[in-house]
Amino acid sequence: xxxxxxTIPRAATTLCILESTAQGRVNWWHDFTERIxxxxxxxxxxxxxxxxxxxxxxNLTPPTxxxxxxxxxxxxxxxxxxxxxxxxxxxxxxxxQLYWWELERGDAVKRGILNIFLTNYCATPEExxxxxxxxxxxxxxxxxLRLQATMGKPYDVRLGGx
Length: 162
Known about the structure:
Blueprint lengths: L27 H12 L30 H18 L7 H17 L2 H7 L4 H4 L10 H10 L14
């Protein structure tokens, strides 16, 4: 930030794009993108593009009679709930997209790299920032917990009674 940014001209004709695959949390990229996403910036615009944004890129025809797994259904639900924020409309994944996702995820689980798969094919920014090292809980458990979590509802805390 202190070395590169001063070299970028502040002109209407200047376009600077910073793009990266997240590599865990508590690092410069995570701090920078979260700061821009949450607080905004006069110099930067936050843009997150989820894996499903290009419908024709990641899909595979499922075999006859294929039924998505429970985890795939949870993922599709998360996509439907969060997609309006990222691509401006609610997205219902096609069977072809969901089949592709389920196969790729299954392969990543077998290879022990689910965290890398979720980083590269994320549906939300939070999902992109996976741990890059071995954690106390497996990526499968963390993924299921995140997919089942819902936003809390604010409430009024009144001190001294009602």
